UniProtKB/TrEMBL annotation:
This is alanine transaminase. Belongs to the class-I pyridoxal-phosphate-dependent aminotransferase family. It comes from Nitrosomonas ureae. Gene3D superfamilies: Aspartate Aminotransferase, domain 1 (3.90.1150.10), Type I PLP-dependent aspartate aminotransferase-like (Major domain) (3.40.640.10). GO terms for molecular function: L-alanine:2-oxoglutarate aminotransferase activity; pyridoxal phosphate binding.
Length: 409
């Protein structure tokens, strides 16, 4: 029989967070092995529960959630999001500017499909959250990755951004707070990126899903709050700040200069209507989440679980010979670097696979985030301190043997 092949559109698409190494981990679990998973930022898996008041609001309203809602989302949920944009000082956001989706992931794909013709280019950070690259490619576009500099705390390299703009460039993506590095961008940098977008008439897509997961009194500025003459699309949701990843409830907010983007916004409306609406039950939790007690701040205090886990994981990793790591100011991840002189890795996916096989620890290699060299990996620090200590101890043991095998210890 003629083989049934996948679409050629998937040729340059990868999502290694749930890729082949994870598949091998699943096989090992079926064989009875216990795997310590540091690969996915899924709070519920590690005992971070949805705040009870959010859960109760969803439960109480289930009887009203059996039908379709407006294609953009429930009125009360969008009203709460509008008030949140006002708190973030994003100006002139109306209800019609807000789209609720099945997580930010759906809305990223929708936003790219509405924008891109074949060959159009989008500037995406390197390293990135790989969904962005995949969404651009699947929409017929070309992802042009601009460098974020590790030595400057993983801030975007403005000169590299400017050098990669062409006549086909349509937009620039910012992930701030950043996944996978944990970097947080200062206002001065955001203003310079706005100026680049202004000069080249680019849309700014701002992925801000971690905007409340901040450490050591850090503060987050929404880039859309800093200008009104550039088009912004800002993404956020319940998955991380409210530990409700399984609710699949996110939103996109269009703001700034919208008059010249009426046709693009009509495209967003069309695609939002085609999928009928987002998951209705979880939308009943949005108003309570945004207007209620922000328990995430208890977790990010010096005595809070997230900050303690960050500090323990960072200290243990950087105590390993040849391992350095920027200490994240935000989000849920560490992105350590392996000194190539000590760890001459040629294939970091194979490196992650061998770590899994030998030490039963699952993580994601740096190239899975479109990083250019096989010298980084991402660690999720959601597990409790004991599990993190065990996991990093196993990583240290693996790296010790690696150094011995290669004569670099």
């Amino acid at each position: 029989m003629r083989p049934i092949l996948k679409s050629r559109k998937l040729t340059n698409v990868c999502y290694d967070i749930r890729g082949p190494v994870l598949e091998r981990a699943r096989q090992m679990e079926e064989e009875g092995h216990h795997i310590i998973k540091l690969n996915i930022g899924n709070p519920a898996t590690f005992g971070f529960d949805v705040p009870e008041e959010i859960l109760q609001d969803v439960i109480r309203n289930l009887s009203d959630a059996s039908g379709y809602c407006d294609s953009k989302g429930l009125f009360a949920a969008r009203k709460a999001i509008m008030h949140y944009t006002q708190e973030k000082q994003i100006k002139n956001v109306q209800l019609d500017d807000i789209f609720i989706g099945n997580g930010v992931s759906e809305l990223v794909v929708l936003a790219m499909q509405a924008l891109l013709d074949n060959g159009d280019e989008v500037l995406i950070p390197m390293p990135d959250y790989p969904l962005w690259t995949a969404a651009v490619v699947l929409s017929g576009g070309i992802a042009k990755h601009y460098l974020c500099n590790e030595e400057s705390g993983w801030l975007p390299n403005l000169d590299d951004i400017r050098a990669k703009i062409t006549a086909k460039t349509r937009a620039i993506v910012l992930i701030n707070p950043n996944n996978p590095t944990g970097a947080l961008y200062p206002d001065e940098l955001l203003l310079e990126i706005i100026e680049i977008a202004r000069q080249h008439q680019l849309i700014i897509y701002a992925d801000e899903i971690y905007d409340k997961i901040l450490y050591e009194q850090a503060t987050h500025t929404s880039i859309a709050s800093l200008a009104e003459d550039v088009l912004f699309v800002t993404f956020n949701g319940l998955s991380k700040n409210y530990r409700a990843a399984g609710f699949r409830s996110g939103w996109a907010v269009v703001s700034g200069e919208k008059s010249h983007a009426r046709d693009y916004i009509a495209g967003l409306n069309m695609l939002a209507s085609m999928r009928l609406c987002a998951n209705v039950p979880s939308q009943f939790g949005i108003q309570t989440a945004l207007g209620g007690y922000q328990s995430i701040y208890d977790l990010t205090l010096p005595t809070g679980r997230l900050m303690r886990q960050r500090d323990v994981a960072w200290k243990l990793l950087t105590d390993i010979p040849g391992v350095t790591c920027f200490k994240p100011q935000s989000a849920l991840y560490l992105f350590p670097r392996l000194d190539p002189e000590i760890y001459p890795i040629e294939d970091d996916q194979e490196f992650a696979l061998q770590l899994l096989l030998e030490e039963k620890v699952l993580l994601v290699q740096g190239t899975g985030f479109n990083w250019m060299n096989p010298d980084h990996f991402r660690v999720v620090f959601l597990p409790n301190v004991d599990d993190l200590t065990e996991a990093v101890g196993r990583i240290a043991h693996f790296l010790q043997h690696y150094r011995k095998r290669h004569g670099t210890y």
